[in-house]
Write a structure and sequence with these properties.
Radius of gyration: 26 Å
Distance between the termini: 43 Å
Shape: globular
Structural class: alpha+beta
Largest sheet: 7 strands, antiparallel
Length: about 675
């Protein structure tokens, strides 16, 4: 589409009751980000109340008409995804505006490939709109849905707001107050910031522009650090903001388990979902399916979170296992069925489950897709330890274009299931204590060594030949095995992001820096050729709230893993002061941490270990007076030898490297942005 164009949704697909909007962009530095928001407007172009404004602290409409799903990595960077159940939109709402805003003074003109895509419930793309020349604006209207003669249409807007989120919200009638003071004239004790990433303790309520408390009363977020996270990890403020006193408290796991009443360590706590007695893969698949589907049906927040991205409406959910469906002379029995009812209509998905290293079988999934198409079901969901990549589906399924009903083929990794359970019970909270307990039991089951639901665990059969080929310099460009290793590496990095994000309660995403319009296969082929030439696998992780991008390098020639981060130099002060402050921040970091000064116009600056720099911080300053642009901090460790997840495995060594670097280095850095603080939009307690 082009700017200003509009189109009727019914002309794009026969099934547009539920649609998904994806907002995407890329950044040359890998650090560009923005927050999406949605506003429901009446015929006069205003919200009915502040509750019609949806953002990351108010992500779900009670009626299920809007749900912000958060960010997902793609080959072009990452996308923010929003599902709309247009059949559930209240009659008084005539327009639905889709927008995004940047923070800390950043503007959309700094981002590349700004785009909006729209897809139906089957995942088929319906339209794409690219925003050109966004300019120096802090907020941007991408597009809007609007009613016309009983049908929904979409219009591409591409309009920016120089005044940022505050100006956008004001124009659409959201209650904006220029102060965060209470009725007594004193600053409010708690507040929620919409567009701010500064640590909670550094915020000053009297400096903020705020939105009324009604905005965030629809959702309350409680963040706690789980017992499994090292104490040092608690130093990083979570993504969630302080909850106002008027909000309903949600239930999360306690910070520390209560003292056990067991007589000795041999007593084992009774579990709702025992895993120790499982003996075969079939038993594991059956148990895992039943455990997951039962908890999805009983915990609405969890079930909705897993199915919203698949096009399911918000409604009453029931789940079933071992259902027999007719299929000619040989009936089929999918592992499970999910059904959601809303307004008398049913949404149905068949579920196929695999555990351990068992791969999905194409003929099996194809049969379920055919059955779903014949019976008018909406989706087939596959569950396994593998991680699906963009442009590389785990199973290729043929579809009959003559059929009116389109079936969406969706995949969930067990790592994603674990991540969503962690986010709810350790950080965001659920409505009832019993629901938190159920999710805790599910999490314990998934993490049990005998469950078979441990996520991506094997670098594949090409791993050893590629390593050997790099060692003896016989691996040639164009070798298909190198592409297999690159894909496995990408899967592993995505899983690391899910695991770390679930522990921290923050967004952790892999950074992609592809050329615009690059094909998935071409991009991975290029990375495979680089692996053949340089013997390295590289990745970058963007952890919300950190001052830079965490870089990970696996050097297959030296057998070492390097984790590093580049932090920018402060805007003010003297270089010696910067060096002393940095060394003080790293007081608890390992002595073998490598510190390198980044000097403008030079390939490398002074460097040394933290052990050497602690008594003499000035040793890291350039002798020629060069301008310091930042510092690079790095840790090294040996790489695991085997391809699996054992103690000596490569996957385990990558997990341990990222955890060690984050917990011993990253959490001790100053997370305040070096730029001056900008006005933000937030909400004050009533």
């Amino acid at each position: 589409m082009i700017k200003g164009a509009n189109v009727g949704l019914s002309s794009l697909s026969t099934d547009v009751g539920s649609v998904m909007v994806s907002l995407g962009w890329s950044s040359p530095t890998g650090e560009g980000d923005a927050d999406v928001s949605v506003l429901l407007l009446t015929s006069d172009g205003k919200v009915r109340s502040d509750a019609d404004f949806f953002f990351y602290n108010n992500p779900v409409a009670p009626d299920g008409s809007v749900q912000l799903l958060g960010k997902a990595p793609t080959a072009d960077g990452d996308e923010d995804r929003i599902t709309f159940d247009l059949t559930a939109v209240p009659p008084g709402v005539e327009r639905i505006v889709v927008a995004a805003s940047r923070y800390q003074g950043a503007v959309f003109g700094d981002l590349d490939d700004l785009r909006l895509t729209l897809s139906d419930t089957s995942g088929e793309g319906l339209l794409r709109y690219s925003v050109e020349d966004a300019g120096a604006v802090g907020a941007l209207l991408f597009g809007e849905f609007y009613r016309r003669a009983g049908d929904w249409r979409f219009r591409a807007i591409g309009q920016g707001y120089g005044s940022g989120l505050a100006g956008l919200a004001t124009d659409f009638g959201v209650d904006v107050d220029d102060s965060a003071e209470t009725g007594s004239g004193e600053p409010a004790e708690t507040e929620v910031f919409v567009g701010e990433r500064e640590p909670v303790e550094a915020r000053k309520p009297v400096e903020a522009t705020v939105i009324g408390a009604a905005v965030i009363e629809a959702v309350a977020v409680a963040a706690v650090v789980p017992p499994s996270v090292p104490r040092s990890a608690a130093a990083v403020p979570p993504r969630t903001d302080p909850r106002p006193s008027t909000a309903k408290k949600k239930v999360t796991l306690p910070k520390a388990a209560r003292k056990s009443l067991a007589e000795n360590d041999n007593w084992r706590t009774a579990r709702l979902f025992p895993a120790a007695a499982l003996k075969s893969d079939r038993e594991r698949e059956t148990r895992a399916t039943s455990v997951l589907l039962s908890v999805m049906a009983q915990v609405p927040e969890f079930g909705r979170r897993l199915t919203a991205g698949f096009g399911a409406p918000a409604g009453r959910m029931e789940t079933f296992t071992e259902v027999t469906l007719p299929n000619g002379d040989s009936p089929r029995r999918p592992d499970g069925v999910v059904r959601v009812e809303r307004a008398g209509k049913l949404w149905t998905a068949l579920v196929e489950t695999k555990t351990n290293g068992n791969p999905l079988k194409q003929d099996q999934v194809q049969a379920y897709a055919d059955i779903a198409a014949r019976r008018g079901y909406e989706a087939v969901i596959t569950l396994s330890n593998d991680v699906e990549l963009d442009g590389s589906p785990l199973v290729q399924v043929k579809t009959d274009g003559r059929r009116k009903n389109k079936v969406a083929l969706r995949h969930l990794s067990w790592a994603e299931v674990t991540h969503q359970a962690q986010m709810l019970i350790r950080h965001e909270g659920v409505a009832h204590a019993s629901h938190a307990w159920l999710l805790q039991e599910l999490l314990h089951y998934l993490q049990h060594e005998n469950s078979g639901c441990h996520g991506f665990q094997n670098m594949g059969p090409s791993w050893v030949p590629v390593r050997n080929g790099i060692d003896d310099e016989t691996l040639c460009q164009g070798d298909a095995r190198a592409v297999d290793v690159v894909e496995s590496w990408e899967r592993l990095v995505r899983q690391v992001c899910l695991r770390l994000g679930g522990e921290l309660g923050q967004k952790v995403l892999p950074v992609q820096r592809p050329r615009r319009g690059a094909d998935h296969r071409d991009r991975r082929a290029g990375l495979a050729d680089r692996l053949c030439l340089e013997g390295r696998l590289d990745a970058e992780l963007r952890i919300e709230g950190t001052p830079g991008v965490l870089a990970l390098c696996a050097d297959l020639r030296t057998g070492k893993l390097r984790t590093s981060i580049e932090i920018p130099a402060p805007d003010q002060g003297y270089p010696l002061t910067w060096a002393k402050r940095l060394v003080r921040q790293l007081d608890e970091a390992p002595a073998d941490l490598h510190v390198e000064t980044l000097v403008d116009g030079e390939a490398g600056g002074p460097r040394g270990t933290l052990e050497r720099l602690r008594p003499e911080p000035a040793d890291i300053l350039p002798r020629n007076g060069g301008r310091i642009t930042g510092f690079r901090l790095s840790l090294f460790r040996g790489m695991g030898n085997t391809r699996g997840n054992a103690e000596s495995g490569f996957i385990r060594s990558v997990d341990d490297s990222v955890d060690r670097f984050h917990n011993l280095v990253v959490v001790h850095l100053d997370h305040r942005a070096p730029r001056p603080r900008q006005p933000v939009v937030g909400a004050a307690a009533g």
